[in-house]
Amino acid sequence: MAKQILSRAEHVDYVLRRSGQRFAVRLELLAKETQRETKLDAEAVTTFAEIAHQITQTGAFFIALGAGAREYEDFLQSWHDRYPREVGIYKGYAGEPLAHQIEAGADMFLMPSLYEPCGLNQMYSMRYGTVPIVRATGGLDDTVQNYEETSGRGNGFKFQEYRSSALLDKIREALYFYGKPKAWQQIQRNGMMMDNSWSAAAQKYIEIYKELGKL
Which domain holds residue 189? Predict the structure, then answer.
């Protein structure tokens, strides 16, 4: 665990250089990957655009990678133009290595999907010790458990309603716990210990069939 977390500095440095950033390496990173196959409507763009300024004001840096709807790319470009030090973007297909460099180098991975049948990126992120912030839908709801400080359980942060204010609240909540190293490391460990393998999934199906067999 310690070795993997410490090596993140190398990933962060690489990611910042690739995204055109020239500031010193810091850890307040939020990553968001857009995927070509994801259908992004105007509502999704508006939802995120409404809180873009507030996200920047938290002191976090934001890196986006990928290609998608034109209006979404234009929004990211305009956000970068306004905050060139805080916002880094890489438009287009850059291959799996850079995508994983971002996920490994970031402290948080932002995936506020309107819908998500499965979702792999939140699982990749947790393996790297990168804490996901997601909306509770589909596979994101299945794989991410909201962190509870009293019990120490949870591997990320998730919100229910598809509203910009709900997303912003979760980002601020995550940043609050980021400032508490012991709690943050617990969240990282919880995520890294998640078993999302096919073996684990198959076992769950077996248990379901056994229960059905009792009916």
Answer: 2-213
